[in-house]
Amino acid sequence: MMGAPVRVTYIGHATTIVEWHGAKFITDPLLFRRIARIGPKRKVDFKLDERLLEGVRFATISHGHFDHLDKRSLCRLPPEAPAVCCPSLSGIVGRSCGRRAIGIGWWESTGIGGAKVTAVPAFHFSARPPFHWTKDYQGYVVEMTAGAEKRTVYHAGDCGRSEYFGQIGKKFAIEIAMLPIGAYDPPSFRKHHLSPEDALDAFEALGAKVMVPIHWGTFNLSWEPFDEPPRRLMERARDRGLEKRIRLLQPGEFADID
Fold first, then answer.
1. What Å distances lie between residue 98 and 75, 134, 254, CA to CA?
2. Biggest alpha carbon distance in the chain?
3. Which of 46, 80, 132, 189 is 20 to 30 A from 241, comparing alpha carbons?
4. How many CB atoms lie under 10 A from the CB of residue 200?
5. How far is CA 87 from CA 71, 93, 128, 168, 206, in A?
6. Helix 228-240 to helix 196-206 angle, to the nearest 10 degrees?
7. What's the Cα-to-Cα distance from 5 to each of 17, 35, 105, 236, rounded to whole Å?
8. CA pseudo-torsion sign 193, 224, 199, 140
9. In order of start, what are the domains of the chain with their CATH numbers?
10. pLDDT digits (tens, 9 = 90+) for 57-114
């Protein structure tokens, strides 16, 4: 990888901020201490530096669960920044302080904020009770171009094992893959959530160069020990000779990835 580095800031859970050459976007923004006001509370200290939100050009929303589509958090973004989402979620996004929604489905693309954003398949589930029931969920590949340079980032959102990772890897030359590694225990959860081993399998199927683990270390939503996902991930990565390609970030940390 050449040229200016891509800065990835891990806010926590599935929320990241990605910056490169003026292109800046946020994924599944959840910017408060609790999920949906009365839901689980963050297990780590959290105070968002509002300067991180300055210049955000757009947001991506993977699905409608309250910990991935938070209307209050969308209201904190610059008012001109739209949210890219499944078409069925456009109404909910639009009710977030009048946020403009760009609804696209699997393999559809839109150009925005100096980037090309493509929705890609994912295997998960989605609901937003009591009124919104849907089977829409997806990840995103964001291709950022500046002059002769191009950087490609994949955000999986929240998902389980599937053949889609290989399909995505064949269509895109992914450099940075942000993959979930938590919420896999009890065993029934693993159907819709990647374990650390599953995430490494997905990373290899994608053919990506660098992995940034997400969906861990923020909320206690499952049975595995809170500190197990990153520890287990790095142990298995060492076994596979992949540890140097993992950028493990604590909530609030960033990495500049060449």
1. 8, 22, 30
2. 49
3. 189
4. 23
5. 16, 10, 15, 20, 26
6. 50
7. 14, 32, 30, 27
8. positive
9. 6-243 (3.60.15.10)
10. 999 999 999 999 999 999 999 999 999 999 999 999 999 899 999 999 999 999 997 8
- 0.85 cut: is pTM over it? yes
Query: Hey, what are 14's tokens?
Result: 């599935």
Give the burial class of 242: count Cβ atoms within 10 A of its Cβ; 0-12 exposed, 13-18 middle, 19 or more buried: middle
DSSP code, position 26: E
Q: How far apart are CA 181 and CA 195, in angstroms?
A: 5
What phi, psi does 146 have (nearest 5°)? -140, 105
> The tokens 């050459």 sit on which residue?
21
Distance CA 55, CA 12 (A): 20
Type of residue numbered 132: H
Residue type at position 65: H
